[in-house]
Amino acid sequence: MQHSVPLIYFHSIVPGKYLATWPVYIVGDDSANLAVTVAVDDAEHVSFAHEAVADGAVFHTSITADDARRSYVTSSVRVRLHQRSFRERVLEAYQRQCAFCRFRHEEMLEAAHIMPDSHPEGEPVVRNGLALCTLHHSAFDRRFIGISPEYKIEVRPDILREKDGPTLAHAIQALHGKLIFIPKSPELRPDPRLLAIRYDQFREMF
């Protein structure tokens, strides 16, 4: 903090997985509680001009403090960390597979919110999440598909009657009436109350 030396912050996402953020700076010291305040900055604003010595190591650094910029970058990084943490915790709970179709290619899996971020109850917690492949995440968000509080999949009637190719028939319509895959731990399963709210919104479509 005294020498404005940039650090790398490793944020724990799930056990054994971290997201590295650089550069971060110590901008406050609460010695009584053995705590510090960290601010994230934009790497483009790190330059190298003079030497600063900390614990015997020599750092070549020159930082122009910009509280407004750091506050903005820190807020952006905090949002990204919450999103990444939410995704990892949801995928872990669902054993890294789509809750609708059991698709397991992680690069095409996403953490879907039951209640969106904009809703007062749209918290980034596992019980407000579903692990879904990109296709079913999109279908769920656009209310092609609903989920009852009993974890049963319901396809919207007009979509169910529609005639199209094999993707619609096998990937969407064939899900009607099936149960979603849920985590083994009851405390990680979708919250039936949140599902009920979302299901009522889905039913308003017809």
Walk me through what this model shows.
It contains 5 helices and 9 strands, in the order βββββαββαββααα. The protein has a 3-stranded antiparallel sheet, covered by helices on one side. Strands 4-5 form a two-stranded antiparallel sheet. Strand 2 (17-30) and strand 3 form a beta hairpin. The protein is 29% helix and 28% strand. The chain has 206 residues and is of the alpha+beta class. The model has no long low-confidence stretch (mean pLDDT 88). It is elongated.
Question: pLDDT average, as an integer?
Answer: 88
The major β-sheet equals: 3 strands, antiparallel
Main sheet strand line-up = 1-2-3
| Gyration radius from CA atoms, angstroms | 23 Å
Multimeric organization? single chain
Which range does the strand content fall in? 25-35%
Distance between the termini: 59 Å
Helix count from the secondary structure assignment: 5
By secondary-structure content and strand pairing, the structural class works out as alpha+beta
* Fraction of residues in H or I helices: 25-40%
Helix and strand run: EEEEEHEEHEEHHH
Low-confidence stretches are none
The global form is: elongated
Number of strands: 9
Compact description:
This protein is of the alpha+beta class and 206 residues long. It has 5 helices and 9 strands.
Lay out the secondary structure.
Layout: E1 7-14, E2 17-30, E3 35-40, E4 47-54, E5 57-62, H1 67-93, E6 109-113, E7 129-133, H2 134-141, E8 145-147, E9 153-155, H3 157-161, H4 166-172, H5 192-203
Antiparallel strand pairs: 1-2, 2-3, 4-5, 6-7, 8-9
